[in-house]
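Morning F.,

Quick status update on the modeling queue. The single chain you submitted on Monday has been processed. Sequence for confirmation:
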Amino acid sequence: MASVSLKRPRQFLFHLLYWQQFEELICSLGLRLFGSGLTSFKAGRDGGRDARFEGTPSKWPSESEQEHGKYVLQSKHTSKEGACCSDSDFKTTMKDEGKKIKKLVAAKDISHYVVFTNRTKSASEDLTFRTDFQKIKGLSRAWLVGKEHLHTLLNDHIDLWQRYEEEVANPVRFNREDLIKVIRSFSEFIQRDPHRPRIDSLRHLNLKQKNDLNNITPEYFAERWCARSRFARVLMARSPVDFCRV
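Structure tokens below.
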């Protein structure tokens, strides 16, 4: 009698990552697929590049179809659950990226282009992407790696996802950049009147506004937060706007 596996399929909750974490994940995966020559760029005006590789990849797009070239890798993260590549905002973003890629091609800084996203991708959307970018003269190939393909890749490199798995499961998460903004805001606030801070000027948000700002759905809040202590619920409901991202 054949055995039936009741093990729950691993869930990759990419939308719960911060965009910085998703970028780090893609760069780590890129090192495995392309090789140690992959160079990542810090966030900023990098001309449309998250990472760059020049040479022959070790495993991309497979272990038998590698092509020598100048590769540019980009990560496109969304915190919207269920987002897809046919969404208008993504189409607009990729149209803008196309202009940057043309400049890189003109400067002979790219021959192959790879975009990783946590959006779902249909066959027609993949064809549209490849058709649009292969119209750029001088660009050899272009790939759009959607959520489904990312699942397959990470199942082969599960240790990369495990770095973020515990943090994603924890609803109390702090973004370093947001904490810096909060500290600076309070510092500036207190400096204006060091003897008597005007705490009454801090505006409070109701629970719905706070959840909207943090992209927390009612279902997620009910599952994660309402099962927590009364202290957690009070913190969410009564914290001032300065803590809206915390």
